[in-house]
Structures are given as C-alpha cells and as structure tokens.
Amino acid sequence: xxxxxxxxxxxxxxxxxxxxxxxxxWVATPYISEEYASLLAxxxxxxxxxRVLTVDLSENRKAIAQLRSGARQQVMQQRSVPLLIIAVLTxxxxxxxxxxxxxxxxxxxxxxxVFKAMCELLLLIRYWYAWIGxxxxxxxxMIVTNSISVESALNIHTxxxxxxxxxxxxxxxxxxxxxxxxxxxxxxxxPKSKFVHSKILIVDDIGIIGSANLTKAGLCIxxxx
Length: 225
Fold this sequence. Notes:
Protein name: PLD phosphodiesterase domain-containing protein
Strand content: 5-15%
Keywords: Membrane, Transmembrane, Transmembrane helix
Number of helices: 8
Pfam family, one: PLDc
Distance between the termini: 17 Å
Number of strands: 5
Helix content: 55-70%
GO molecular function: catalytic activity
Organism: Ignisphaera aggregans
Mean pLDDT: 79
Radius of gyration: 27 Å
C-alpha cells in the first residue's frame, strides 16, 4: 500500500533500505554524494544489481569517480596484457638471438634492443619497486659470479627485468581477474544540458518517488516530501 512521508529526516527510512538491499538498487538522482556512492559500490560487491542515473556536475565528481573505480581497475588489468605480450616477445627474441646467433643476430639486434629498453622502462614506470629489486639482484649476481663489467651488468639487469615484468603482469592479471565487483554498477551520467530532475529509488521490490536527492543534505537536513 502506498505511503507518504514528509519531514527533514527521510534518510532514516531510505538508508536502512539501501543497507539491507538483496536484489537491486536502481537510482535516478541529479545529485549524489560520496558516502552514498560508496554504499552503492559496497552493495555491488555483495552481488546487488546497482543502476545509477545522475548528472555530470562538479558536486557529483567524487561520487561518480567512486562508482567508476571498478572500471579503472578493469582497465589496469587490460593494460597488463599488452605489457605481458611485450615482455614475453622480448624474452623469445633474446632466446632466438642467442641460440641462432649467426643467422638472426644481425636481423634482431635493433628490435631486440628496442624491446629490451621498453621492458626496462615499463618495469621502472609500472613497478618501480620491482625495478629497484632487480638492480639489487643484479649487483648480487655480479659479485657472486665475479662478472664485473658494464656489458654483464646490462645483460643481467635486462634479463631479470624481463622475467620480473612477466611475473608481475601474470600476478596482476590473476589478482584482478576477481576484481569485477564495482563493474556491477550500471552507471549512466548525462551532461548538465540534459539535467535529470527526477528522484526515483527502487530497492528490491520497493519504489520511492519524491524530492530528496541521494545526499546527506537531501536525506537528513532539508525538508522533503
């Protein structure tokens, strides 16, 4: 049966509904605050279907960023794949160049140096701490093997950098394979020129229509119907 509520604290009704949602949370609101975006992301991680329609306003930027955080994590996982391909290709080129030196040495020397430099740079930019570890390991290997030369140092460092880059990329892909939680948030952000004024909330099988935005001020301070 429909119910009507007026007052300054409709949040005491809406917040428990959001926290206890089991199946779905569908929201249309021109304004959404960071704390409620965080709650929606949490519910998405719990398996609740979350859909949000809001407006691209400066007031919403932090909330929108939170709802999009899962997409950024997924992009990071996708970026690990080309890094892995580059590192594996460099390792293969190095092995082929070593095994068939007389045949391929001249053909592979330039692309091999380019790929090696890319691996070193990518490891330094993406996993700088691993690059430092590789540098320390290179020094240790040189001392143990008594190979004190610039060429030996470069060869050892590059080889270790390639192996570590491959390992780091594989580990990140495996780790982020399970990080798809926020991607359950179906986020639609419309430009300010197409301002959405409706405030609609559907939680499981309960529908709410009114004048309250999904913000602390909207749910807890200002007078709403």
